[in-house]
Amino acid sequence: MFERSRKGETALLIQPHAGGPPEPDVLEEFADLARSAGATVAAMLHARIDRPNAAILIGSGKLEECKAAADAIGADLILVNHTLSPVQERNLEKALGRRVVDRTGLILDIFAQRARSHEGKLQVELAQLRHMATRLVRGWTHLERQRGGAIGLRGPGETQLETDRRLLQKRVEQLQRRLEKVEVQHTQMRRARVRSELPRVALVGYTNAGKSTLFNALTGAEAYAADQLFATLDPTVRRVTLPGGGMVLADTVGFVRDLPHDLVAAFRSTLSEAREADLLLHVIDAADPHRADRIAQVDEVLAEVGAGDLPQLLVYNKIDRIEGAEPRHDRALAEDAESLGLEETARERVWVSARDGVGLDLLRDVLVARLGLQRVLGTVRLPARAGRLRARLYALDAVRSEVHEDDGGWTLDLDMARPDVEKLAAGPDGHALDGLLPPDDDNPEW
How far apart are CA 273 and CA 251, in angstroms? Predict the structure, then answer.
């Protein structure tokens, strides 16, 4: 009986494809996934499968070629860039004498290595158990022995496989309950951010586009950032101060082509930050020759998680890798929007380098305009009874200077965000602030 190898540093990659040869970027991304998991890519084989083999996916002749190649390079791991059924995975392992991992299993392994938060670890384990549950039938034939018959083992005759399946199901249910509690806590935190009336912005994009680097540059945080796929899994949220006020910025997990549906479902808390945002910053690697395909793939995943209709601002990052590129702001063209089926304002573009800090001031200015953050400057006269309103103005750091009047009141010189003015104007003694806002709300000169 074949025993699954616990090693797996040297890998042979198999790229199934139909018709012509696969695109180079597909091969490169799969190799990057393997390296991100810690494997050493020794070789890659193409396998044309116009009619997938139900037992081994690839043909018998290609199977022999894979066996010879694995023996020649000393590979102890076979990675297949395709979703394998439990039967196919087990049959390939028996025929090749090595551990076989499909695309879903590979991404799960990367996620297991990168998850840092309590919730992230729970989500990864849940996705792994659901993936494993389909592989208990034929993946471990030694577990099919009946309990009972020997001294100390007589009983109802439940097989070890059935016992493991039952225990696995109990663990899945336990993880689901724990995740539901964590989700309630996160929902309460998001509601608190909504009550603060700060605009919510989420960073989305293809993995390794530089989202975490941009997040750190805008927030001053120290979120983990590296030149690798899926460097960030756990959502990170920070408040950002802008010239016209503030916003809440969330960093989310990156996407890849053919992201397994189980993983999309498992990381619902991370993706909820994107789903509930007021604006999506779609970060794109400007130096990637396949960036148009990457944009389409991210849009597809966003539509799948219910965030496809949210307004977007395209941030073309890594212009430092393009000779002669300068930071700039491109307003959306009507023909672009029409061809993409989106509103014209949805495809504005800002070109930056998050690593070098180039273009970030331009990005902040565009965010101020998109989020409606504008400053209100003026002088107000507060009566003595408006002490609570005066305290609120100081709490917002809106007072530039103050003069104490003889009647006990104050004359304040203010500089504050317009949403804060509107909020305070609706409260007690708020009529004292009416003069700060123009009578015609559509007048751009205020």
Answer: 8
- The rounded distance, in Å, linking the Cα atoms of 274 and 277 is 5
Range of the domain at 227: 198-371
Q: For residues 256 and 290, what is the distance between their CA atoms, to the nearest angstrom? A: 13
Shortest CA distance to 161 belongs to which of 130, 129, 136? 136
Spatial separation of the C-alpha atoms in residues 380 and 394, rounded to whole Å: 14
Residue 189 has pLDDT above 70, yes or no: no
Q: Return the residue matching tokens 């977007």.
A: 312
Joined together, the tokens standing for residue 337 give 């929007």
* Contact call for residues 168 and 189 (beta carbons, < 8 A): no
pLDDT digits (tens, 9 = 90+) for 115-165: 766 777 777 787 778 777 777 654 444 444 444 444 444 445 456 667 777
**Rounded-to-integer distance, Cα 165 and Cα 136, Å:** 7
Q: What is the rounded CA–CA span in Å between residue 369 and residue 244?
A: 9
What CATH code is carried by the domain that includes residue 391? 3.30.70
Same domain, 119 and 107: no
Q: How far apart are CA 394 and CA 388, in angstroms?
A: 10
